[in-house]
Amino acid sequence: MTATEDTFAEFVRHRQVELVRMGWALTGDRQLGEDLAQTALQRLWPRWDRVSARGEPYAYVQRTMINLWSSWRGRRWRQLERTVEALPDRQSDDEGDVDRLDTNDEVDRWLARLAPRQRAVVTLRFLLDLSVEETAGRLGCSSGTVKSQTAKALEHLRVFAPSIAGDPTDHRGGTT
Predict the structure, then answer these.
(1) Residue 52, SS3?
(2) Are both 31 and 48 inside the same structural domain?
(3) Dihedral of the CA atoms 52, 54, 59, 63 (nearest 10)?
(4) pLDDT tens by residue, 55-94
(5) 115 and 48 housed in the same domain
(6) Of the candidates 30, 55, 83, which is a domain's last residue?
(7) Domain count of the chain?
(8) Which of 80, 73, 166 is nearest to 120 (CA)?
(9) What is the DSSP letter of 47?
(10) Which residues fall within 8 angstroms of residue 128, CB to CB, at 6 or more apart?
């Protein structure tokens, strides 16, 4: 193995669990999350020397995952969604369903209710524990956008998940 291969392999060993977790949070599906992480790592490999020399391969691969997820989401929607004249009757009660789910399934359901940008912000801020500034950098937007999207996401989630109600404060010193 070359030195480049060794450093890349070490990076993957060190970050793989975090990347799969991020992929799961973005996609809402564990296997699709693994595919997303793997695809992002495949995109990173040809650029490894340049990206690692800048010292930010983790940030680069996170940004790659967000971009991939955005494009996959659009394609997957076109593949899965079909227009119908009338929606079928629902067979279950949302509140009752949430009570029967384990924590991971509950989080999946909460995240699935968010708009794509809000889901990305919540994933980066709370599941990956990034600061407002780090999240803005990964998403290519301003800190103000991160804060407003976080506030909107939390407000939306409070309607469906009263257990997370309250005013969370950014543990890095600011408010959401």
Answers:
(1) helix
(2) yes
(3) -100
(4) 889 999 999 999 998 887 665 544 444 445 554 454 444 5
(5) no
(6) 83
(7) 2
(8) 73
(9) G
(10) 18, 21, 22, 25, 62
